[in-house]
Amino acid sequence: MKLFTITLLATQLSAILAAPAAIQHDSRAIVRPRSPHARFSLVATVTSTIVPSQTSAAAGGGAEGGEGAEGGEEGAEDEVEQAGEFDVPIVLPGGSKVDTLYPPGQNGVFEIEFQNAEDRTLTVTQNTSPAAPPAGFRAVEPVSFIVNLAEGTEGLTLQKVDYILNANSTLDISTGAIGRFCTEAGAFVIDPAVGELEFEVEENELLIKVDNMNGEWGIFIPDAAATPAAGEGAAPSEEATPGGDAATPGGGATPDTKQQLIDLLLGLLQ
């Protein structure tokens, strides 16, 4: 009879000791996906027949961009920063490098960089019903931006379309792209032929150097980069059941129950 009792108690003790281990194993199975930070090669989303005609000029713009970056500090005195308003023409003074920033959107600020010997007049409007993003991308803003330099863009020293992420935004735009709307295709084009794409880590700024800024522009990020919070959201659920104790009904009484069974077994063996 004593042997049967000892066997029964030993079986119960084994079951109790095994249960928390199973719960712990399940809680550690949570995976935290991370958004990709590696840069990617831009792939054309339409056929080559609709690539803007500025292909050769955009390719040659890289050298000028490099010189501008090296001489950025030296030319700081000649740099002008001004605030623009959508739908309102604004003068871009000649001679200096001019940065025109527009009111912040949901996630960032649209900016135009310009330099030329003579003045130009810039107007930027928002398209509240833009075309769909290219396949595999999503729009950072619910609008696109239509840029119009009244006197034309021929012969300008510098033309850049920029997007600066808001300080409170959690989006990752380091792998993003700035696309140009092609009227012939009725779609946004993301391709190196559109311009020289850059990302400035210090400013959290995405920009593209082009040969002709006039046109409609959209700011896009890969679908994977649009949901970085998905992996981070797993942490609270894991904390809700630390070690499996909170997830076990009556978890607080488990240590006492184990000790009682151990004491009883020792008493029977004596």
Verbal overview:
- The chain has helices at 2-27, 55-70, 229-232, 234-239, 254-269, and strands spanning 79-83, 90-92, 97-101, 108-115, 120-127, 137-139, 144-149, 158-165, 177-182, 187-189, 196-200, 205-209, 215-222.
- It has a domain at 48-63 and 81-227: Chondroitinase Ac, Chain A, domain 3 (Sandwich).
- It is α+β, with helices and mostly antiparallel strands.
- The strands form two sheets. Strands 2, 5, 6, 7, 9, 10 and 13 form a seven-stranded antiparallel sheet that branches. It has a six-stranded mixed sheet with strand order 1-3-4-8-12-11, covered by helices on one side.
- The protein is built from five helices and 13 strands.
- Keywords: Signal.
- Residues 70-81 have a biased composition (Acidic residues).
- Residues 59-69 have a biased composition (Gly residues).
- Residues 1-18 form the signal peptide.
How would you sum up this structure in a few lines?
The protein is α+β, with helices and mostly antiparallel strands and 270 residues long. It has a domain at 48-63 and 81-227: Chondroitinase Ac, Chain A, domain 3 (Sandwich). It has five helices and 13 strands.
